[in-house]
Structure formats: C-alpha cells, structure tokens
C-alpha cells in the first residue's frame, strides 16, 4: 500500500500496517482497529496512529476515530470516551 502513495512536500511513507485491536465490547456489537503510518520528513521518522472504534446498539451506529503521533492514543482515555458515546446510544 505504501508504494501507491507519492512523496508529497518532503514526506515519504515508509510503512503502513493495520490490524484489529483488543478492546472491551460496547453496545450490541463493537470492533476496534488501528492503522499505523510510519513516514519520513525532514530526517525524522515518526509514526502516525489512527484508531477506529465502531459501535452498534440497536439501530444506532457510531464510529469514533482517535488520532495520535509518536505513540498510540491512550487506551484508558479511548475506553472512557467510547463508554460515554455507548451510554448515549442506549
């Protein structure tokens, strides 16, 4: 996938990985995924993290997207915020 992305404004994508996250269950159904994008810019090689949590409770659907640079978004904060959204969906 990284090969399909072009070098843009001095940013070069080195690697992209994706997978399912271990995450507590919320609502009727839920799933969590993480995409990690390692790139090079100005001699640095940080990783950009995109965590996606999808919830279904009855007919209500929600997708939460957590973004962070260098380290993944805090698991405890992600769970806390997801629990708030799940509670409002009931």
Characterise this structure:
- The chain is α+β, with helices and mostly antiparallel strands.
- The protein has one helix at residues 75-89, and strands at 11-20, 29-41, 47-57, 60-69.
- The model has no long low-confidence stretch (mean pLDDT 91).
Low-confidence stretches: none
Structural class: alpha+beta
| End-to-end CA span | 38 Å
**Beta fraction:** over 45%
List keywords for this structure.
single chain, 90 residues, alpha+beta, four-stranded antiparallel beta sheet, 1 helix, 4 strands, 17% helix, elongated
What is the secondary structure topology, with strand pairs?
Blueprint: E1 11-20, E2 29-41, E3 47-57, E4 60-69, H1 75-89
Antiparallel strand pairs: 1-2, 2-3, 3-4
In a few lines, what is going on in this structure?
The protein has one helix at residues 75-89, and strands at residues 11-20, 29-41, 47-57, 60-69. The chain is an alpha+beta fold. The protein is elongated.
